[in-house]
């Protein structure tokens, strides 16, 4: 009976985090962009500091008509938002929040699991673009496929460097082996991992597959109402997952002062800082062209990731 209650409690905690944290990131994006760009609208909805902006957006999406194009592959079209969103819920189950088993489910090959499941989420965009019977949506889907192929490799190589350093593929095991001097040592891998993750999420400046000013929001052109809102929620859930994984792999996760009691708080704070960086990058940098995206992946990130692996091997040999 205790085992059942323990599993139920862990699943409930993961579900609450999945439902709350992406909305918090979405609300923060409204406010940060409003301050950085001098936007007055998001600061007035509801009164104090525009607290009701996210609520207003939710009501707007709920009121819009749910339209499916006449020539679309209806079943695939309707399934695509769920395929884009659900993988991030599964990934959250494997991310350790604190010490002493504070994780939904410890998985021996945790890195393989989270990266494989994150890759499935991109299929939602491909499905939506293909099923929409719209040439702009199809173009956005093809750009998504090309970007995924380019940035999946440096993402995997950067994560492999950390697993190599810790001697385990388990995310809790990596945190148990973590030492603070790893932060400068793995800094290149952290930069590669975070950048490649942004590209896989199609976040600015890597949003060429969406390109609202060029191909009319890419694979999501034909989506309206709550299905479009699910794609946006998947984006914010992806931000939470990417920032949490970067925290666990490269910033020590729950390690910090009074980690035994406040480890979960350190994980949350580090994840929040990285989420702010994601928002800041959206405001600060212009969109890269498709050729620039590919060149960055193959000529910069992949060599840097390989260098990080080589450096990790040298350091491991010297230590041993």
Overview of the molecule:
The mean pLDDT is 88. It is globular, with a radius of gyration of 20 Å. It has helices at residues 2-37, 53-63, 74-94, 110-121, 123-131, 135-166, 171-177, 182-185, 187-200, 225-250, 259-284, 290-319. The protein is built from twelve helices and no strands. 43% of the residues are buried. By secondary structure, it is mainly alpha-helical.
What features would you highlight for this structure?
mainly alpha; 320 residues; globular
Task: Report, as a whole number of angstroms, the end-to-end distance.
Answer: 45 Å
Structure summary, number of beta strands? 0
Low-confidence stretches: none
- Shape annotation: globular
What fraction of residues sit in β-strands? under 5%
State the order of secondary-structure elements, H for helix, E for strand: HHHHHHHHHHHH
Q: Note the total helix count.
A: 12
Overall radius of gyration: 20 Å
Mean pLDDT: 88
Helix share, percent: over 70%
Major beta-sheet overview: none
What is the fold's blueprint, element by element?
Elements: H1 2-37, H2 53-63, H3 74-94, H4 110-121, H5 123-131, H6 135-166, H7 171-177, H8 182-185, H9 187-200, H10 225-250, H11 259-284, H12 290-319
Helix pairs in contact: 1-3, 1-10, 1-11, 2-10, 3-4, 3-5, 3-10, 5-6, 6-9, 6-12, 9-10, 9-12, 10-11
